[in-house]
User: Fold this.
Amino acid sequence: MCQRKNDIKLRRLKGRSKIKSIFHNGKSYRYQNLLLRLEKKTALSFLAVGVSVSKKDFPRAIDRNKIKRHLRNELNKINHNIIFCGYCMVFYDGEKIPEKDALSKQMKGLLKKANKAFIS
Assistant:
């Protein structure tokens, strides 16, 4: 049961059926260049997260992997602010490679928006 902030662990999102479920049953939240697709499951005690960057916007795999690494790093840094459990995907849809501090602000804003929706 997901009840307190400190109990939530981050895991990698795995499985085709879970990803399909996010797109069919989940809700989406947008903040600047980030999009969060979230399916809340209160029975779980973890948040399974997947990150994605468009191949169309970043044709070089080096750039996509760098952005994904930064996204995962920011999620781990602000893990204590997450109050929901379930499955989610984070998408970056900007046109340039983001700076670390800009990405950090965007991630905090996105999670704040998702947390408000979870509480209400």
